[in-house]
Design brief:
501 residues; mainly alpha; Sodium/glucose cotransporter
């Protein structure tokens, strides 16, 4: 049975809130431009490395919790049911991984002046091939990441406009605003807008959480409705399900902690104390965001059983849409929540796009095509490249809508390849005798194994891209780590690497 979903009609008030929010974002972009102290790569891409605790925490929060969380994770919770409560541990592991490598990487960045993640890679290992491969994998992950946000943008604006704007019109509107304020102010504008967006997101999450646990009998009533319509969604996982849990935990925990735009926020911290305090505060955020996404999907399963794969990405919209007519106060609260959803989506997309531009400009264009390029030329090239990538991704967002690709599939496609960078950072910042040849070989073979498993499943050579319940990327990662560790133990680097003891 497919219970009909509510038709979400927000009215002109919601459009006014959205319009006002976008105007504020443009204003912050202009202010960021005026506050630039110099036209340098460090100022544009890292905000001059001046972010204190408050701004750093809010920009990390707004960037980390995006359309993936509020739409993609909620949709996955709808599909899997009660077992997806494990998703909270995914994001807890992300912060744990950050705490392991981020403080040491920050000290290296401050000492040697890193701007992009691959500045560290080349300085640490001295390998051109490894640097280029890292840029390719990171840009692949970020391009998929931005694509996820574009899909979420379209769904969000379509909902908040009550259907007055189509999916693609919503994408084009938000992308246009985002590109303007990002091009004007760079990282400083992005971080300031993230601070506003993060504040909205925190307030929005609190409102949704309170509403979900109090409305319509709360979680107890939702569990009873699910037991009547889909009792299998309340069952504990079997052995294969447990392996999938562990596999997803590794994929998300290690992969998300390697997002280039998150690493660049490590470089942008004012000091190590600000960084550690921000990461410590981030450790509590899964309880108010990832847990919330799980609850949204769980409540949606109890109210709207039988949704299609594409519809499952909209369960946040459906759940909140069923609350807007309860009172004028609830109407405006839900409008603000949707503004928070849009804020989270934009904050992630703008950060990822800025990071793509910085890596292409500094690690590819200047290093291999125009060594004499000035800072002004590199900024122009970076902005132009980012705009071009965005145009391609807008087209791909339309294709994903037509093919009904879910946000979760895009998440897997991104992380299962990007997680192959884990040994570079997790081992590279500490293990001075690990040679570039070990890292490069492990990364190449791990990526190839992941690609083979994905392609085999896509062309029906085998039935699944998760053999034995373990994701393709995790199989590749195990091979990757095995090569890195085994090679280093048997044939350690003859000379100490450039990373200081």
């Amino acid at each position: 049975m497919n219970t009909s979903v509510p038709e979400v009609t927000f009215g002109p008030g919601a459009l006014a809130v959205l319009g006002g929010y976008l105007v504020v974002m443009l204003g912050l972009g202009l202010l960021g431009r005026l506050k630039q102290k110099e036209r340098s790569l460090r100022d544009f891409y890292l905000g001059g490395s001046t972010f204190g605790f408050a701004v750093l925490f809010l920009t990390l929060f707004a960037t980390q919790y995006s359309g993936n969380t509020l739409l993609g994770f909620a949709g996955r919770s709808y599909v899997q049911g009660a077992t997806y409560i494990v998703s909270v541990t995914f994001m807890v592991l992300v912060i744990t991984v950050f705490m392991i490598y981020a403080p040491r990487l920050f000290r290296l960045a401050r000492r040697f002046g890193y701007i992009t993640p691959t500045d560290f890679v080349y300085h640490r290992f001295g390998s051109h091939a490894l640097r280029v491969l890292c840029v390719v994998l990171l840009c692949w992950g970020l391009a998929n990441y931005v694509l996820e946000q574009l899909v979420a943008m379209g769904h969000g604006v379509e909902a908040i406009s009550g259907g007055r704007m189509s999916f693609m019109q919503g994408v084009l509107l938000l992308v246009g605003v985002m590109l303007i304020y990002e091009s004007l102010g760079g990282m400083r504008a992005v971080a300031w807008t993230d601070a506003v967006q993060g504040s909205l997101l925190l307030c929005g999450c609190a409102v949704i959480l309170y509403t979900l646990v109090t409305a319509d009998g709360g979680l107890a009533a939702a569990s009873e409705r699910i037991r009547a319509t889909a009792p299998e969604r309340l069952e504990p996982p079997d052995a294969r399900g447990l392996r999938t849990w562990v596999s997803t935990l590794l994929m998300l925990g290690l992969g998300v902690a390697l997002y280039p735009h998150a690493i660049q926020r490590i470089f942008a911290a004012k000091g190590e104390k600000s960084l550690r305090r921000s990461l410590a505060a981030m450790g509590f955020m899964p309880l108010g965001t990832t847990l919330l996404a799980f609850l949204i999907g769980f409540i949606a399963l109890s109210r709207f059983p039988g949704l299609s794969q594409l519809e499952s990405d909209k369960v946040t919209i459906y759940v909140l849409g069923g609350l807007i007519d309860r009172s004028p106060v609830m109407y405006w609260l839900i409008v603000m929540v949707f503004a928070a959803v849009v804020a989270a989506i934009m904050s992630t997309a703008d950060s990822a796009l800025l990071s793509i531009g910085s890596m292409f400009t500094k690690d590819i264009y200047k290093s291999y095509f125009r060594r004499e390029a000035s800072a002004r030329e590199m900024l122009i090239v970076g902005k132009t490249f980012a705009w071009g990538i965005m145009a391609i991704l807008i087209l791909m967002a339309w294709v994903s809508l037509e093919t009904e690709s879910s946000i979760w599939v895009l998440i897997e496609l991104k992380l299962e390849f990007m997680v192959q960078l884990s040994p570079v950072f997790m081992l590279g910042v500490y293990w001075r005798r690990m040679p570039a040849s070990a890292v490069l070989t492990g990364m190449v073979l791990g990526t190839l194994l992941t690609l083979v498993i994905w392609c085999g499943a896509a062309f029906d050579v085998w039935a699944t891209r998760s053999p034995w319940g373990v994701g393709a990327g995790v199989w590749g990662l195990l091979l990757n780590y095995g090569i890195c560790v085994g090679w280093t133990v048997l044939r350690p680097a003859k000379l100490p690497a450039t990373v200081p003891a």
